[in-house]
Amino acid sequence: MQTRQFKGCIGHPEFGFGFIADTLQQQQGYADFHLHPASDLFFRSVSLAEALPSEASVNNFAPPVWNQGGTGSCGGHGTAGAVTTTFASKGVRLPTPVTPRMLYTLARAGDRASPAVPLQDVGTSPNALVRALETWGAPLESEIPGERSAADADYSIWLEEHVNDEPRLGELQAANARPLINFNAIYATGSLLRDQVCAAIAAGYAVMAAVEAGSAAFQNFHGEGALGFTGSNPDHWVYFTAFRTIDGEKQILMRNSWGLGIWTPDGCAWCNEDFITRGMFYPLVANLGL
Questions:
Q1: Gyration radius of the chain over CA positions
Q2: What is the pLDDT of residues 103-155, one digit of tens each?
Q3: What are the domain boundaries of the chain?
Q4: Distances (CA, A) of 14 to 6, 17, 173, 212, 259
Q5: Distance between CA atoms of 159 and 234, rounded to whole angstroms?
Q6: ∠ CA 204-288-123 to the nearest 5 degrees?
Q7: Considering only CA atoms, which of 191, 158, 153 is closest in space to residue 71?
Q8: Structure pTM?
Q9: Strands (E) located in 7-161
Q10: Looking at the domain 14-286, which fold is it?
Q11: HSE-up of 112 (CA within 13 Å, CB side)?
């Protein structure tokens, strides 16, 4: 599959990426965020690997696989999908999903130098998305006048036309009643990262992370078997909703935002331990305060 240049990144010939790495200072800021409720049960366990079940899933609580089209809005889609999933898993089924477009908009609006500077479709960072949710709450598709459902067949076309629409204060009033209580960053590496990601899923949390999707290993994967290590230069933001054990090794389920039937038939991919331990970056879990 041939790649193309997209917003300064090597991108899929049809789909955009849009992940921007947090600065070192922003990464250190996650240390001040609350630990999510799974922490004492799983994250601090001496024998974490032994405590894990062989499989767990919150995938049934996830919204449909979305399609970001050629925009750089992966951050909005991955984060909105994970937050929507976690709300439902924790017993709060939202009437409609968190809107990925508005979340992407708020993250960029919060980081621009001046409100007079028009929004540009240049991607965003996890830290900006976190700050947007903590400042404005989680806006739902049904709460934004004229917002198109990300599940609609022509959503990606609509999104490319409206990706730089300015946010309006009145549209965010309902979201203010739905604040998120910070995020927990998973700092571990190697096998401990694998175990902590699986522990979060077992506790009912979807996990967000950056991956390298511009590599041939990622783009040439079409769903057969498990996806292995794809590279160490993250350029894309996705979320994970399940894990299983195959031949003694853990695999986790990635939900992408490239639609159905082009990258893989269902828009998802099982990822092997090599991918988990070497190919996941900046993993975050939303602490909803529930």
A1: 18
A2: 999 999 998 989 899 999 999 999 999 889 988 889 999 999 999 999 999 99
A3: 14-286
A4: 10, 10, 35, 16, 11
A5: 23
A6: 95
A7: 158
A8: 0.91
A9: 9-11, 56-57
A10: Cathepsin B; Chain A (3.90.70)
A11: 18
